[in-house]
What we know:
The structure is a homodimer.
Chain A: E1 8-21, E2 24-30, E3 35-40, E4 45-47, E5 57-66, E6 74-85, H1 104-109, H2 111-114, H3 118-140, E7 144-145, E8 151-152, E9 164-167, E10 170-174, H4 179-189, E11 191-199, E12 212-221, H5 227-247, H6 249-254, E13 267-269, H7 270-281, H8 293-307, E14 311-315, E15 328-329, E16 332-336, E17 338-343, E18 346-354, H9 358-367, H10 376-384, E19 389-395, H11 396-404
Parallel strand pairs in A: 3-6, 4-6, 7-11, 13-14
Antiparallel strand pairs in A: 1-2, 1-5, 2-3, 5-6, 8-10, 9-10, 11-12, 12-19, 14-17, 15-16, 17-18, 18-19
Helix pairs in contact in A: 3-5, 3-11, 7-8, 9-10
Amino acid sequence: MMYQDGQAVKLHGMVHSHRALGEITFFDLRQRTDLLQCVMNSDTRINGADQLRDEQAIRIEGLMQAEPRARGGFECHVMNIEVLSSPAETRPVHLGKRIRNVGLDADLSLRPITLRHQFYRAMFRLQEGICRGFRDYLASAGFTEIHSPKIVASGAEGGSNIFRLDYFGRKAYLAQSPQFYKQMMVGVYERVFEIGPVFRAEKHSTIRHLNEYTSMDFEMGFIETFADIMDVEEAMLKHLLELLGSEYKAEIELLEVKLPSIDRIPRVRFDQAKQMVAEKYGRKIKNPFDLEPEEERLIGELFAQEHNSDFVFVTHYPSKKRPFYAMDDPKDTRYTLSFDLLFRGLEITTGGQRLHDYQQQCDKMLAKGMDPTDFADYLMIHKYGMPPHGGLGIGLERLLMMLTGQNNVRYCALFPRDQSRLEP
Amino acid sequence: MMYQDGQAVKLHGMVHSHRALGEITFFDLRQRTDLLQCVMNSDTRINGADQLRDEQAIRIEGLMQAEPRARGGFECHVMNIEVLSSPAETRPVHLGKRIRNVGLDADLSLRPITLRHQFYRAMFRLQEGICRGFRDYLASAGFTEIHSPKIVASGAEGGSNIFRLDYFGRKAYLAQSPQFYKQMMVGVYERVFEIGPVFRAEKHSTIRHLNEYTSMDFEMGFIETFADIMDVEEAMLKHLLELLGSEYKAEIELLEVKLPSIDRIPRVRFDQAKQMVAEKYGRKIKNPFDLEPEEERLIGELFAQEHNSDFVFVTHYPSKKRPFYAMDDPKDTRYTLSFDLLFRGLEITTGGQRLHDYQQQCDKMLAKGMDPTDFADYLMIHKYGMPPHGGLGIGLERLLMMLTGQNNVRYCALFPRDQSRLEP
């Protein structure tokens, strides 16, 4: 907010923190996104409570005064305070200090309150900004937003990491991704996107996995090669970072985020990346079919050093490790026309071209030991006609985690879900 | 798209439908949102297939020619066709006709294909427009977008209509609404919104219920009365309808939607509305605590006739029928500071002011036979301080249903979930 010196104001907010210095009490008023420094003295009238306390909801009348030491250059000299509500108990954590003084576990248990810290207020404003950037760019590029079901009859990503539920006596699952549905919608609108929850019953606990997270997905038809998908992601990320830089300046500063700059994101084949890291860092290749987290980190490091890029597309993942809907590279069917995007050494996107031909998709299912009749609804689009197409999914919390330099993805979900956490 | 007469074009799309008239074949090219009328003759070259078929993905080269009888005033005279993919089988439904010639059940079973009909393409573009309008208005009014968890430890709306799942050996539920979380976030950002899936295990099958639907929720702090919430909804709806009227003209026309105009939405007390309908239509009041669907319909009819309004806010619902977090009217605690919004006789919104005082909330829970210790996480916000606040939830599919005049909400969800439908 911009104020003028001497301006009379009527404002409202929560008492974020306060401290008395003799006759004078300073307090921070927590507004929608800002904190405003306020000053009261013995003349200030309080109605609705006998004294000022943290987490009271108040309305104030006062005069704005220029104060170079205050955030935003102004402080409010308060004449009247109306207390609308007072807490029943004193807040169990300090929110006034820049550094949060609780450990992650206590923090998570107290999330309804700890989220009121400026750290989190900035964090989840940036989360909003990422969604806006994603959506706005794709809308401008002719994508239609969709809402696909989360209760499903079969998993798209396979494996055992799927939540089961009883659906009126039938077995049902929580969607691991909107994969089937966004492909179906390519037949309808050619280009679609969705931001929504996905569910993974992964049993391992790591700093980068959540059992429920927000996936930003898009899928597009009439691609010439799977590089088209990377091109769209690259342009989207550029737009997104510009948006954050222009409209979320305060949050970027508060979290001391160094926004990456994107020119052209380097693209490297999976097998080459693996080889480069093995050579540069003297590592043995243990598993030729997948990247270990440490390898991803080193690929990120290598491309940061040698190509000055925080991002790198790793392409042509082995067919063995990609799902049944991935299109194999016709030049070498041991690899797929697919990619991951690594951001500062962590995978934040998986994408690629999908099979669109009915016979090819059935054959690949059979080769993987799957029965195409189990997927008759999905295969309808292949049977009755689909354009060449592909797409990707971006983990919102992971992107935010790497952007803000957190060491745990739980800092980047409002109310994270992991094996031990179903609350709050 | 705007074209010039004689303009050379390169386009792509799916063959939506075609018919041969002697030497000439007309076909509709299904583009992202439009259909383009195309003409080919015996000179037109086809590569990649021996003939043109519906649901082929094609690239074409041709010349645009002014043709007043064609949609958009132009048709494309096609010189070259490159067929990128062909379906394995002929599409099981006609999509070319204006009227869909399949019943709802067959339609639902074939949704991956029937959604390609212009009816549905227009329908779900309008769905997108509604979400845009909701989001854009609220963002401009200082609301922050949030993503709350869908796997939860307890239901916010109570009752038996909740889906259960096993969460790593613990009992968990699918969120019936983001209620608890959006209230928590009012303490963080004052104003928040979310568009996301909610899950209701309702065992009755009606034309207006889905077991999974998309809820558009907002929640706002520092309200003076619960009328503030209705004011925001009213302004949001005005913005939304203007957006649809300006940016979704083609879809509005295709679906023959009569956009409602909003000046000031009438507001009537629940008990008065009930009485008015009883008098005007000679109905006996059977249940004084709830509105029957037929009563809602008649209230809608009455306000359409007498106040020329497609919308009506019904306020002050009985405490008995509102959830434990609803604030009672201090003037008469048998009623709550709450409302529903009826649109053309159907409830599309439930909202109201929430309790923010810890003791009052605990007391109300106890009076309803609930144990506050079961809701310790939720009650943290009341205990440690909350402003007066309230909010609402809008059923996206229902709003779309009433806007477009459908007789079944299943037409307004891409892949609806009901008791008998978990697929596609």
